[in-house]
């Protein structure tokens, strides 16, 4: 279900660095975090989202999140960006 949102989104920032940047700029609507991603990679993102009041949605795997983003490799984090 949540993967569909990522697939349908016009603007998605893929990867921890890009997603963090979008949250910091206040442009992220929602952030998707893969449950099987390394917590050292995702903890900063999750804490930032709490601070900035951005909804975090956990998805089952990096592989599926990457696929939903339209990339061949797994993605730990993806953010849906407001226009």
TrEMBL record:
Domain Ribosomal protein eL8/eL30/eS12/Gadd45, chain residue ranges per copy: 4-82
Keyword check for Membrane: no
Keywords: Ribonucleoprotein, Ribosomal protein
InterPro entries given in the database record: Ribosomal_eL30-like_sf, Ribosomal_eL8/eL30/eS12/Gad45
Cellular component terms (Gene Ontology): ribosome
Record-given protein name: Large subunit ribosomal protein L7A
Organism: Paenibacillus eucommiae
């Amino acid at each position: 279900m949540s993967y569909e949102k990522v697939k349908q989104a016009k603007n998605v920032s893929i990867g921890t660095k890009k997603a963090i940047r979008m949250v910091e700029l206040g442009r992220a609507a929602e952030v998707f975090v893969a449950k099987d991603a390394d917590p050292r990679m995702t903890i900063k993102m999750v804490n930032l989202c709490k601070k900035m009041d951005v909804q975090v949605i956990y998805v089952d795997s990096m592989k599926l999140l990457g696929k939903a983003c339209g990339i061949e490799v797994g993605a730990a984090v993806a953010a849906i960006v407001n226009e």
